[in-house]
Write a structure and sequence with these properties.
With 281 residues, this protein is of the alpha/beta class. The protein contains ten helices and ten strands. It has helices at residues 2-11, 91-99, 121-136, 151-162, 177-187, 192-196, 202-207, 210-214, 234-243, 266-279, and strands at 25-26, 50-57, 60-67, 76-80, 104-107, 144-149, 167-171, 199-200, 221-226, 249-254. Strand 6 (144-149), helix 4 and strand 7 form a beta-alpha-beta unit.
Length: 281
């Protein structure tokens, strides 16, 4: 996200008139890597415990993997990756999640990895709704739990606010574009004076309003956030939790855990397993 934002300073600075310039605005899609990350198509294969899955979605072909769970009573977990990540990079992580009990389904975002189409944040979010609705039809009534990490939390929370889910897990979620984009820019080395002159565009405000999304669904919620997360400070995760109207809801503080380690931290895995068990009928 940080590299893309630095480039966006130059791409999305709106100018009007001769020599006049309005404050630069950062748009939602500017946080996506350009070009999007790809994966060798030959690597999109079925393997032990894993099958390929495909979905057509609004002009895109989404390709993913489905992992067999160990608990036949568990809802299906649909995972949404962090920014710039492709599914072939995280096969081991999805297997660990499936070993906690639930079947796991994960797709590359449109234009990423094995998937086709043009990326766009709101398109990713609309794709997520379609993915959840499609996966839910094959769960035998056990339902779907959406699990999103980092930017994937904005995707998962949006899906939860716009369709029916059995539960929601958000790992290292940011609360809003207004709070996170200045932090991301500072982490990219952008001077404070430049950041102070910038504002998120309305499309970014709408797309990244995770705290607002959390107030629009009532499904059980689990939030995981590390105390050592400097990419998305834990205060933002707490803000999402405070804005949630879910019952029940739980916030798990991961002591000493940084951003990239959130999903695989032992305490996070234990919390996910307990959360999944609590949803079984």
């Amino acid at each position: 996200m940080r590299t893309a934002l630095v480039a966006a300073l130059f791409v999305f600075a709106d100018t009007t008139g001769a020599g006049a310039q309005t404050p630069p605005q950062i748009h939602a899609d500017s946080v996506l890597p350009n070009p999007p990350p790809k994966a060798p198509f030959a690597d999109w294969t079925t393997a032990k415990g894993r099958t390929t899955t495909t979905l057509s979605a609004n002009g895109a072909i989404l390709r993913g993997w489905s992992y067999a769970g160990t608990d036949p009573k568990a809802p299906t977990l649909v995972f949404f990756n962090g920014n710039g990540t492709t599914i072939d990079q995280n096969d081991a992580m999805y297997r660990v999640l499936a070993a906690l009990g639930p079947p796991v389904v994960v797709y590359d975002y449109r234009g990423y990895g094995f998937s086709q189409g043009l990326p766009g944040v709101r398109l990713l979010q609309d794709d997520a709704v379609r993915i959840v609705d499609t996966v839910a039809k094959g769960t035998g009534g056990r339902g779907v739990v959406v699990y999103g990490f980092s930017i994937g939390a904005a995707v998962a929370a949006y899906a939860a606010a716009n369709t029916t889910v059995a539960g929601v897990i958000l790992a290292a979620p940011f609360a809003s574009a207004q709070e996170e984009l200045p932090i991301a820019l500072a982490g990219s080395g952008v001077p404070a004076s430049t950041i102070a002159a910038m504002t998120p565009a309305q499309d970014a405000v709408d797309a990244f309003a995770v705290a607002d999304f959390a107030g629009r669904f009532q499904a059980p919620l689990l939030i995981l956030h590390g105390t050592a997360d400097t990419d998305v400070p834990i205060a933002q995760g707490r803000e999402v939790y405070a804005g949630s109207v879910s019952t029940p809801k739980r916030f798990v503080e991961l002591e000493g855990v940084g951003h990239a380690q959130t999903v695989m931290a032992p305490e996070a895995r234990a919390a996910v397993k307990a959360f999944i068990l609590s949803l079984e009928h």
